[in-house]
Amino acid sequence: MLDHPVVDVALGLGLLYSVLSLAASVVKEWVSTLFSLRARNLEKGIGTLIGDDYANRLYGHPLVNTLAKGGKKPSYIGADTFASALVDLLAQDEDGKPAVSMRDEAAKLVHRIEDDSALKAPLQAMASLGAETVDDLRRKVAAWFDEGMNRVSGWYRRRTQLIIFAIGAAVAVSANASTLHVARDLWRDDAMRYAIAQEAVATAPGTAGGNSVRVAEAILQSFPLGWEGEEVRNWDLWAWIGHLLGWLFTAAAVSLGAPFWFDLLGRVAKLRGTGKRPPGPA
Question: Which residue intervals of the chain are DSSP H helices?
Answer without folding.
Answer: 5-34, 37-50, 52-59, 62-65, 79-91, 106-111, 120-128, 134-174, 179-188, 190-203, 212-221, 237-254, 258-271
